[in-house]
Amino acid sequence: MKQRKNKEVSSQDLSQLVVKGMIEKKGQDVAILDLRQVKNAIADYFVICSGTSDTQIDAIADSVEFEVHKAIAEDPWHKEGKENREWILIDYVDVVAHVFKKDRRQYYDIEELWGDAERTLIEETAA
Does residue 93 contact residue 108 with C-beta atoms inside 8 Å? Predict the structure, then answer.
């Protein structure tokens, strides 16, 4: 069974660090899906955002990793999608970040797939 190294940081706090990394690079339509009450959920939280270009998607993913590592010295357990840059997944075990190209997000529609989850939309702030 996979486990995070830094168990002192709650999954909720980790999800906020992921959001910070996404907002830092202007991730769009940032949403947190709270899966803790969803039967058979594979994580506590999904944090999802969209980007408009390959370059931005790559930058958002790098920013997420940077913010999490800077704050709690934790590296992802698993990541994939960096090569094609249409859907980059960064798995921190309890929290999974999904960085989508806008059309791919609509196509896969994981918010609908996990429709039982409590969904929180993050207001975009002017930086």
Answer: no
Task: Name the CATH topology of 11-121.
Answer: Beta Polymerase; domain 2 (3.30.460)
- Would you list the domain boundaries of the chain? 11-121
pLDDT in tens, 45-79: 999 999 999 999 999 999 999 999 999 999 999 99
With a CB cutoff of 8 Å and minimum separation 6, the contacts of 83 are none
Q: What is the DSSP letter of 3?
A: -
CA–CA gap between residue 115 and residue 38 (Å, rounded): 9
DSSP 37: T
* 78-88 core/surface letters (b: 16 or more CB in 10 A; e: else): ebebeeebbbb
Residue type, position 3, single letter: Q
* pTM of the entire predicted model: 0.92
**DSSP 8-class letter at 14:** H
